[in-house]
Amino acid sequence: MKFAKRIQSIKPSPTLAITMKANALRAQGRDIIGFGAGEPDFDTPENIKAAAVRAIADGFTKYTPVGGIDELKDAIAAKMEGDHGLNYNRSQIVVSCGAKHSLYNLIQVLCEEGDEVIVPAPYWVSYVDIVVLAGATPVIVPTEEAAGFKLTPELLRGAVTDRTRVLILNSPANPTGAAYRREELAALAAVLASREITVISDDIYEKILYDGFEFFSIAAVSEEMKDRTVIVNGVSKAYAMTGWRIGYAAGPAPIVAAVTKLQSQNTSNPASIAQKAAVEALTGSQEAVRTMVEAFRERRDLIVSALNEIPGLACPSPQGAFYVFPNVAEFFGRSFQGKIIADSTSLAAYLLDEADVAVVPGADFGADKHLRLSYATSRELIETGVARIAAALGRLG
Ligand SMILES: *Cc1c(COP(=O)(O)O)cnc(C)c1O
Q1: Nearest CA to ligand 1 atom 15
Q2: For the domain bounded by 5-43+288-394, which CATH number is listed?
Q3: What spacing in Å lies between the alpha carbon of 204 and ligand 1's midpoint?
Q4: With left for phi above 0 and alpha for psi between -120 and 50, is residue 321 left, alpha or beta?
Q5: I need a surface site. Which of 105, 305, 331, 341 has the fewest CB within 10 A?
Q6: Which has more pLDDT, 12 or 22?
């Protein structure tokens, strides 16, 4: 059968693929410890589940407006005002079926063939394929590990061309956990001044920050930056709601109207029931978020110290999100039973085969010297899993 070039030009999400492979091995009876999944291991908080049950009982089960119910848009507006001092009205907010859906729709409405999208690396796996699906060109800008994996004004200036349409920023970042400070964002904004470039700010890990690091959005740098930034966020990560599929975008009304039009011809509204649950997530008690973030911080400290005890491995302590991204280049060129570990992909395959541990190769995020491990898992599994990794790395000759 013949398929469109569009679908042939992309790859399946590698993080979802790793999770599926680990599940398949488990089904065969193997005791696999998974550091692959990019989702909280906690259950959705009870008050949020109760709101969804109420929505079902009340018969809130019909189509809603394509871009989301006013109640949810108002909850998002109140959150933006309260958290960042940013004012958005209903025409500047669109609710989608997850933040990934918002990102996809935004790139579809903003970019086409000939357009360039700047993607700092290491990047979240889906950005590149989402850009390719729009026919646009991803311009991948590698950042320095020594500079905390952050885009600098110099790197940004070097990447911008007449064809640049969009810059994608993600802070705190998946996979590195790197988070930008206000001054760093202001310096990037200065490079963009007087250029027609839209910033898509993926703030999905905004609530998952440690050690008092204060979140700041590039949209809050100035009124001018607000007018050219679209904030993408959602309830998946902060509220352990990955399966509910609610994300949103907030930005200039014409962009939001275009996304809403696109949504009207593909998904229509996000699930009515999940929208009611998201209202409760944003307006109800935030206690569960604090509890989960504190648990993530303890696990971060545990995994960082355990990994750093492995000779040859270096793992900085990330500021946010729930991933570590250790440098494993020391192990490249070593071998096991005649097979050479050449790169992050072969190292991840070795760890799955020989240590029964699932990790994601850095190559999938545009940084081949690294592995990504999610620590959204129990302390016990972190301890056992890292011990297995240490033993397996020790067996390399
Ligand atoms: C998980 C994730 C998303 C997608 O979140 P959903 O709302 O579940 O679609 C977007 N961006 C980054 C960086 C993520 O890690």
Answers
A1: 174
A2: 3.90.1150.10
A3: 6
A4: left
A5: 305
A6: 22
